[in-house]
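Homework help board

Subject: predicted structure for assignment chain

Our instructor gave us this sequence and asked us to write out the predicted structure in token form, then describe one feature. I got the tokens but I'm not sure how to describe them. Can anyone check?
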Amino acid sequence: MGDTILTQTHQNWVEITLNRPEKLNSFTEEMHLELRTAIERARDAGARAILITGAGRGFCAGQDLGNRDPSKMTSTPDLSQTLEKFYNPLIKLIRSLEFPVVCAVNGVAAGAGANIALACDIVLAAEGARFIQSFAKVGLMPDAGGTWSLPHLIGEARAKGLALTATPLSATKAEEWGLIWKSITDDELMVEARTLTNSLANGPTVGLGLTKMAIQAASTNSMGDQLDLEAENQKVCGATPDYAEGVSSFLQKRAPEFSGERS
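My token output:
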């Protein structure tokens, strides 16, 4: 693996840092492949949570446009190939992980960088961070799941406003609108993000993972389908050692020690 992605492995979770600070962590093909590899390795090694953040003063400025200069190209680009080969598999991978993914947005999150953050399960942002759907500034439409995430999280009116005007949204306003979980002082962001990720990784991660999947399914399920899914998933949860441990620790008035194991 190269150096566009940094990983730090903790006891049962992994911190992944986008590492092109001189370019506001904008994506190249190499960086895409390294990020997916880092996430897959964490998953395959049994990580129970992942934290994603950025190096330097920004989280991610989206796609690196350095190699997209029209004056240096002999034909028009097929941007669907970039999405199908890089961004779409990344978003699908994050959403498919059966454990929590926390994102700590340490600075500007623009274009696809904003939407990659929104694909994560819990988003914390420094108060100085900004979310920008910058696509309209270059004649594009939101991608990396943006046209799905925005209306689902904040409604059609606000989604269209952000996408059509490319107006920067502060972390404080993003929290107020329900776009993210919480805005935090810049100095405290990584402390809180690491504490949260560690807490999730030491929780009943089978149940947490099934909770994640059920909430994601709710947008397309009927109430009846969702009730059936809850019953099916709750059966799995009830058979785990963590359910037995949770009940025992509650009755014994002690802190639980969850293993994250299935039955």
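Reply (TA_rk): Your tokens look well-formed. For the description, you could write something like this. The beta strands are 5-9, 14-18, 50-54, 58-60, 101-105, 108-110, 122-126, 130-132, 169-170, 182-184. That's the kind of observation they're looking for.
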